[in-house]
Design a protein that fits this description.
Blueprint: H1 6-14, H2 21-32, H3 38-51, H4 55-66, E1 82-86, H5 94-104, E2 109-112, H6 123-127, H7 139-149, E3 151-154, H8 162-173, H9 180-194, E4 198-205, H10 214-230, E5 234-241, E6 249-250, H11 252-263, H12 269-286, H13 294-303, H14 306-317, H15 322-326, E7 336-341, E8 346-351, H16 353-365, E9 379-382, E10 389-390, E11 395-401, H17 406-413, E12 416-419, E13 429-433
Parallel strand pairs: 1-4, 2-3, 4-5
Antiparallel strand pairs: 5-13, 6-9, 7-11, 8-10, 8-12, 9-11
Helix pairs in contact: 1-3, 2-4, 4-9, 5-11, 5-12, 5-14, 9-10, 12-13
The protein binds uracil.
Length: 434
Amino acid sequence: MPVLDPREFIRAKRDRRVHSAADLREFIAAYLRREIPDYQVSAWLMAAYLNGLDEAETEALTLALLHSGRTFDWKDLGRPSADKHSTGGVGDKISLILAPLVAACGVLVPMVSGRGLGHTGGTLDKLESIPGFRTFLEPDAMRAQLDRIGVVMVGQGPDLAPADGLIYALRDVTSTVEREYFIVPSIVSKKVAEGAGALVYDVKCGSGAFMKTRADAVHLARRLISVTRSLGRRAAARVTDMNQPLGVAVGNALEVQETIAVLRGGGPADVRSLTLELAALMLSLSGAASVAEAPKRVEQALDSGAAWERFVELVRAQGGDPASVERTGGMPAAPVVVPVTAARAGVLETVDSFALGELVVGIGGGRRAKEDKVDPRVGLMVRRRIGDRVAAGDVLAELHLAKDDAGAVERARACFRIGEGPAAAPELVIERVD
Ligand code: URA
């Protein structure tokens, strides 16, 4: 039996009381020991979602998650280290391009990522759509790979903030995601535990993000930075647009294909430019390059093919089949592809990116219950951007489905609002918070 009575702990938050750091630590530790079941943690998550955690509770939760596992340190490898984490978006495949790109510039990237969360996609699910790719490595294997190729991309496993891994999976399926005081501990605990010296946060803002307004996103960015710095790491953030999916592809295997296109010198302009901005920030924050020099270094590493080569090495090192990323048609593909067309002419005014993300979860690209298997093949390709003029019948998107689904096509069409315009294309980088 846990020392702490979980019913009393839940009741305290239900009744809007403040937890002590000791109680929070014990609740998390007892959950990790499996002395408290998922249903009681879910009840507490909902109570806290509704009634809040204050700053001290948020910091105590961060420490409780961080100390649920080990803290890694790569200083003996003798190179600067950095990582980036996104707060979650639709079509956000930046990490897959950024990690090998920054490693190709001589900075260690010990990247620890999550699975899909709520309506957003997760880096681990995307990587696992590459046949054979393993997202768990033992700590010794992580060290050896980091030393050899400068990059690892893994999930938390039992060593690294494991309590965040458990709670993250519960939040995903209990509608308890969109709260700053859950997001900060979740991100900062795993990022500090992984041992990168400099952390860059991409805080998404808009209809497809957890933070819908600029004020909330900037507040989250500042909290991420201050809690990270209080734990002895350098940190900076960019607040970036998520009012429409990033790039064209949404869905696990489709996003890997778009990653490959960008790494090979093509791909959508927004994906390329945000990747370069975040990569340059990682270089300058880690001390590997000056602020003036960093943009040239990362652009050169992308355009020379060095980042692409590092990506193929990464795939091979983690058990993936390099042929699946090197040859066209190597990734799993959906059997049914259907266009979603515009019902009328006009200007694309808004995209309901939250609903598009939910649609991808609904057709099998994410989870509705913890045990669900993700179908890597499904998703959509978004062909129009906010501000574009369209004619009736123009293709707005293509849906990639496991089987025919007329309802999904209609739901996708309803996500694109076409009006008289004009509608301005959103700025990609909304605010730089350093
Ligand atoms: N990414 C995380 O790792 N955790 C969150 O809560 C949100 C985004």
